[in-house]
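Translate structure to sequence.
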């Protein structure tokens, strides 16, 4: 016969069952906390990826202007003023570089993208003769900049120093 009484065996089985339930609950809880822990970082990366796609579209549009795929004969690249040509080539290159960095969520990508945002706003405000000085473009750039800063700030608060 066994040295353990039926009562002690039932108590041991109950204790083992409770410990197993507690361990499962704590592991599920820690997984949930870890998943919720980086919610702002995930949102920031999603925002950066959306901005990367937008930067690709803008960069390809500028390249289409340079190569003549968009616009008529009067809008041809060689018929535009030198300032317009320089700005268009600048944005054709820098938008695509920013897109790569944003998609990879690298710090340099965000810096290059911020350079494009500020550059476009400055050109629209300070040199309206180049692209027309649209306040709508400046407002859109300001909204994207504010969204990035807010998301980056919230993501930085998630991670202690």
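Result:
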């Amino acid at each position: 016969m066994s040295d353990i009484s039926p009562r002690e065996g039932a108590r041991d089985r109950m204790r083992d069952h409770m410990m197993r339930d507690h361990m499962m609950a704590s592991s599920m809880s820690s997984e949930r906390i870890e998943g919720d822990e980086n919610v702002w970082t995930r949102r920031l990366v999603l925002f950066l990826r959306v901005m990367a796609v937008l930067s690709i579209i803008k960069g390809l549009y500028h390249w289409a202007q340079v190569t003549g795929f968009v616009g008529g004969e009067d809008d041809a690249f060689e018929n535009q003023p030198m300032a317009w040509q320089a700005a268009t080539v600048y944005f054709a290159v820098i938008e695509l570089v920013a897109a790569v960095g944003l998609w990879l969520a690298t710090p340099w990508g965000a810096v290059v993208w911020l350079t494009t945002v500020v550059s476009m706003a400055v050109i629209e405000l300070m040199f309206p003769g180049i692209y027309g000085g649209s306040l709508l473009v400046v407002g859109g750039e300001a909204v994207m900049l504010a969204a990035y800063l807010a998301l980056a700030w919230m993501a930085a608060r998630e991670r202690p120093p």
